């Protein structure tokens, strides 16, 4: 099209788009009714509204047609590459509309224009690209175009069954247009759309052979044309295989064309330049594996040529698949049965097991339970998902409802892992599940693609599917929510009413919050029952009221109190608010009931299968008013303790053995009179490994052996070397430092206190005596709870005040610290411990 004609086309489109009245006149549409609605009767008003809707629909149809005409003009225009790309993108978005049906309608309009005279100057390559772009604008194919595999064979298009039923009629007509002949003149080159359009139409439209005019006969005829057209190695595409899988067609229905194609390709593959091998090689193997070697009637020379090509390419996995297909007798019957019973496969022998299993026909000799266990084990192996589906289908385990339900649940969990980790394997897994459409595993409502899309985008999934509902109930990847109301307690009257409710409960969940960068007291105290959570605001409430009320509640023997590290971190702060003689009776620390290295968050994941959102933990709890998110987080922190105890279901005698009574005496940690460092578990260790912490200049990570166990320690400064003996503080609460978990601490002394610059102070680790054994404790075998060093008053802080150095020794209260009857030493004269 000349530049003047192009400008005229654009001018006409702008005119028709901005002047709806003129567009309706061109289309012979009725005009708008009178605008004076006040003079109309009700029946006339309804008639005018109907006429206006008809006019708007006609205008919309005209805009669709005019935008398609402008898009068609780009097929023969002479534009610069940059200008062409910008205009194509703009008009493709305009013409494709906003729904899949509108994109299909635009595709059909472009296909119909092939019969007009304007198509004589169209460029075939541009026509193929624009037809595919128009169709993919409003489907998941648009996002997946960057991840196209094997020429479009493994595109993922997820849609609900209801969407597919609505799309099927128009998609079937467009499919028939795409596989039909070109209605244009024979003087020009035939114009046909991109063949990947057929895959998009079939999958997004949820097409079956019955939805296409001509039915299965028309689809098979088109596949025969594609197979006959492919006469060179470079012509292999994934479209043929994708259509065979989608419509559940067998190669036996096009046997002559398939065998002739295999003969031509295998004869040419030895002549292809090695640098030109790509995805076509994998597609050729996938085509051959659809039937056994006897069906193809291939000669040994052809098989040998293919093996040599795969070896030269160093495609180990692909060679293993081809070798298993060509030599199914490589595994004996006993070896196949042994592999399935052990559920373990080494290397890439999954395909060999399946091939040998089918060759020896061992399905009747396998126990269904053992076979199901093997299939589930394969599902959990990332690159064996497709083989697990084939195994489950081949052994017909789907005939048992119990086995089918169990396999579906595990398959959904495996899909969830693939969505997060491996998009390429996800496409192969969905293709394998779709190929099982002849069984209940692949039939509605088992919408695997829909489920995978919901997992990746967080949208609503197929809740009508029982396996999906059970997966969601297990909380895989879900964040724990609060299912009970909470109340904010501020005034003295509200505290008295709250005390009456809490005193009637037999069990309470307790937690507290304070400013992380402050050494002040508590900001709020959360007390949870099964029905609701009470949040006491200790900053706004009157101290003369909440102190006695809290002491009355906490000092009562009626209710059992649940906490997580409460005695170490929360109780020292809370006790200062309760008067001169504070006490907390019947406290059960869930950290001792179920030890975990990742705190409350790890315990929630382990016991409840949910994630605990700790975003608000480091927020400012002293600022007022508290936000809704802060209060929601605080209430959940206390209520989740009740949920954890219910999920763990401990015995009553175990709970009674864990109950402790805290008072002023226990607060001062005077537990044993003969203890050197009460509350601190100090043991002898030896450094096994030292390395720097990524992202930090001064921290180093080391693995310290304690005899029967080991601890990972993150330490500031490079004070350690291999095989060095150290003293390890073993009961520190684990914490994350630059992404590395520090599970313990070291007894390290800084240089003399007279130095002002602490960062540059020289540090030295304490050395236990040579007579002390690895793992030996300084204070003897005593059980101490985990220490929270963020608490302003904790056992380590009190112990560090008593430690010092002098004359090359570690001193406790001015006397040498003994271990195994001998003093502990240090490589400096004087300093302080950290």
Automatic annotation (TrEMBL):
Keywords: RNA-binding, tRNA-binding. Residues 32-59 are annotated as: Disordered. SUPFAM superfamilies: Nucleic acid-binding proteins (SSF50249), Ribonuclease H-like (SSF53098). InterPro entries: 3'-5'_exonuclease_dom, Exonuclease_MUT-7-like, NA-bd_OB-fold, RNaseH-like_sf, RNaseH_sf, tRNA-bd_dom. Residues 676-779 form the TRNA-binding domain. Coiled coil: none annotated. This is tRNA-binding domain-containing protein.
């Amino acid at each position: 099209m000349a530049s003047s004609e192009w400008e005229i086309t654009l001018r006409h489109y702008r005119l028709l788009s901005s002047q709806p009245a003129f567009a309706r006149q061109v289309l012979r549409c009725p005009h708008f009714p009178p605008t004076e609605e006040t003079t109309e009767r009700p029946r006339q008003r309804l008639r005018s509204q109907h006429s206006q809707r008809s006019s708007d629909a006609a205008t919309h149809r005209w805009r669709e047609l005019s935008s398609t005409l402008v898009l068609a003009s780009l097929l023969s225009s002479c534009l610069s590459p940059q200008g062409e790309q910008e205009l194509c993108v703009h008009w493709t978005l305009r013409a494709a509309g906003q729904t899949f049906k509108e994109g299909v309608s635009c595709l059909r309009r472009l296909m119909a224009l092939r019969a007009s005279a304007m198509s004589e100057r169209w460029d075939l390559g541009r026509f193929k690209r624009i037809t595919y772009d128009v169709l993919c604008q409003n489907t998941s194919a648009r996002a997946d175009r960057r991840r196209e595999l094997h020429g479009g064979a493994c595109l993922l298009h997820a849609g609900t069954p209801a969407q597919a039923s609505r799309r099927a009629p128009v998609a079937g007509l467009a499919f028939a247009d795409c596989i039909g002949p070109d209605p244009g003149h024979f003087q020009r080159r035939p114009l046909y759309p991109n063949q990947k359009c057929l895959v998009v139409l079939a999958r997004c439209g949820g097409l079956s052979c019955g939805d296409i005019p001509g039915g299965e006969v028309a689809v098979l005829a088109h596949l025969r044309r594609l197979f006959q057209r492919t006469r060179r190695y470079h012509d292999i595409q994934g479209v043929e295989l994708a259509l065979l899988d989608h419509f559940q067609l067998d190669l036996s229905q096009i046997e002559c064309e398939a065998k002739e194609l295999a003969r031509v390709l295998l004869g040419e593959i030895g002549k292809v330049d090695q640098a030109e091998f790509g995805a076509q090689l994998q597609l050729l193997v996938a085509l051959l594996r659809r039937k056994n070697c006897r069906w193809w009637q291939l000669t040994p020379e052809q098989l040998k040529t293919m093996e040599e090509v795969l070896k030269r390419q160093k495609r180990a996995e692909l060679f293993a698949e081809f070798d298993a297909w060509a030599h199914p007798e490589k595994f004996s019957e006993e070896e196949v049965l042994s592999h399935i019973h052990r559920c373990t496969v080494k290397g890439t022998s999954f395909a060999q097991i399946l091939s040998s299993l089918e060759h020896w026909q061992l399905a009747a000799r396998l126990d269904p339970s053992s076979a199901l266990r093997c299939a589930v084990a394969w599902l959990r192996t990332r690159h064996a998902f497709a083989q697990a589906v084939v195994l489950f289908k081949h052994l017909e385990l789907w005939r048992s409802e119990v086995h089918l339900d169990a396999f579906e649940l595990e398959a959904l969990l495996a899909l969830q892992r693939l969505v997060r980790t491996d998009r390429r394997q996800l496409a192969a897994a969905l293709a394998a599940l779709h190929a099982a459409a002849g069984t209940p595993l692949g039939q509605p409502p088992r919408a695997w693609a829909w489920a995978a899309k919901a997992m990746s985008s967080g949208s609503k999934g197929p809740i009508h599917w029982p396996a999906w509902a059970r997966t969601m109930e297990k909380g895989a990847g879900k964040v724990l929510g609060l299912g009970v109301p909470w109340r904010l307690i501020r005034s003295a009257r509200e505290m008295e009413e709250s005390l009456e409710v809490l005193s009637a409960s037999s069990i309470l969940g307790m937690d507290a919050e304070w400013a992380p960068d402050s050494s002040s007291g508590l900001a709020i105290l959360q007390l949870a029952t099964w029905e609701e959570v009470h949040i006491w605001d200790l900053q706004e409430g009157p101290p003369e009221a909440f102190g006695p009320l809290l002491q009355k509640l906490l000092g009562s023997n009626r209710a059992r109190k649940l906490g997580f590290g409460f005695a170490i971190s929360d109780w020292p702060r809370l006790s200062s608010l309760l008067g001169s003689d504070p006490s907390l009776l019947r406290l059960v620390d869930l950290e001792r009931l179920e030890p975990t290295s990742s705190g409350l968050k790890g315990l929630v994941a382990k016991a409840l299968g949910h994630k605990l959102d700790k975003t608000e933990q480091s927020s400012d709890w002293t600022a007022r008013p508290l936000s809704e998110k802060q209060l929601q987080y605080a209430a959940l922190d206390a209520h989740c303790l009740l949920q954890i105890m219910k999920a763990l279901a401990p015995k009553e005698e175990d709970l009674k053995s864990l109950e402790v009574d805290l008072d002023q005496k226990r607060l001062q940690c005077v537990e044993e009179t003969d203890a050197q460092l009460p509350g601190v578990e100090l043991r002898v260790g030896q450094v096994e490994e030292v390395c720097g912490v990524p992202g930090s200049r001064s921290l180093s990570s080391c693995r310290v052996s304690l005899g029967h166990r080991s601890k990972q320690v993150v330490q500031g400064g490079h004070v350690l070397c291999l095989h060095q003996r150290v003293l390890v503080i073993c009961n520190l609460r684990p914490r994350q430092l630059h992404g590395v978990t520090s599970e313990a601490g070291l007894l390290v002394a800084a240089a003399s206190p007279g130095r002002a610059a602490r960062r540059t102070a020289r540090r030295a680790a304490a050395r236990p005596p040579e007579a002390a054994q690895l793992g030996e404790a300084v204070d003897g075998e005593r059980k101490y709870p985990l220490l929270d060093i963020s608490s302003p008053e904790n056992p380590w802080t009190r112990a560090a005040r008593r430690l010092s150095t002098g004359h090359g020794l570690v001193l406790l209260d001015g006397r040498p610290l003994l271990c195994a009857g001998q003093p502990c030493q240090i490589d400096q004269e004087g300093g302080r411990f950290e």
